[in-house]
Design goal:
Elements (H helix, E strand, L loop, with lengths): L2 H5 L5 H13 L13 H11 L12 E6 H14 L17 H17 L7 H12 L6 E8 L4 H20 L3 E5 L6 H8 L5 E10 L17 H4 L5
Helix pairs in contact: 3-7, 4-8
């Protein structure tokens, strides 16, 4: 399709409805099947994601996709570092929320623990639930999302738009995903494992693969703020 044709593209009612369904049905998945995704499909998905907008068309995202034996060695390295409290973040993160944002954080936490049968007093269960993050929830693939060291908040926003486009591209092709802040908790270890130059700074990771539809944790559907709660319109 030519650039002119793309600019003149007018979606049909069916296409609009399909897009609405695609966006509203995307969920962060926390239990995956071990089956790998075909590399040709992965390449197609990431190529589509590169259509995301960015300030001055800088395209500051630098994804590194890990699969197979490298994925396993990365899991082991993160378990030995982040899993034992060794945190080396490129970007500070306290994880403290307040007011309604704190309420939403607590809500999803309670829903997740209830789904996997972990009580507030179950310290061991909570520990195992935490470590599953570093096992990529069983996903056979994980993308570590970096940006250049000169980049700042503006570019981080661009990378966020890229990540959302990437996850929607995955969802449109039957692939589930989970963006994980914790995968950026030890950037030095990730760089070492992948032999990445220090000039690339790690933001977060996205685990992806085929959803385990039998997992109770994947039945968790967190609430969303209503339009009136989140958006103001002016005339």
């Amino acid at each position: 399709m030519s650039n002119t044709a793309l600019e003149d593209f007018k979606p049909s009612q069916i296409q609009q409805e399909e897009f609405s369904r695609m966006v509203s049905s995307r969920r962060s998945v926390r239990a995956f099947l071990p089956d790998p995704v075909d590399q040709r499909l992965i390449s197609k998905i990431f190529a589509l994601a590169a259509s995301a907008p960015s300030n001055c068309n800088t395209q500051p995202w630098l994804p590194h996709v890990v699969s197979g034996a490298k994925r396993d060695s990365m899991r082991d390295a993160l378990m030995k570092s982040i899993g034992e409290g060794d945190h080396q973040l490129d970007f500070p993160y306290e994880g403290k929320y307040y007011d309604v944002y704190r309420q939403r954080q607590l809500e999803i936490g309670i829903m997740r623990y209830q789904a996997i049968g972990v009580t507030r007093e179950d310290t061991s269960g909570k520990r195992q639930a935490f470590l599953r993050n570093l096992e990529f929830f069983g996903a056979p693939h994980v993308a570590f999302i970096f940006m250049p060291d000169w980049a700042d908040i503006r570019e981080a926003v661009d990378v966020g738009m890229y990540a959302q486009t990437l996850m929607l591209s995955m969802h449109a092709h039957g692939i589930s995903s989970c963006p994980q802040t914790i995968l950026g908790y030890n950037a030095d270890v990730v760089r070492e494992q992948l032999d990445i130059d220090p000039s690339e700074k790690l933001l977060f990771g996205i685990s992806f693969g085929y959803k385990d539809k039998t997992s109770p944790e994947n039945q968790v559907h967190p609430s969303r703020a209503t339009l009136s709660e989140s958006t103001l319109f002016y005339e």
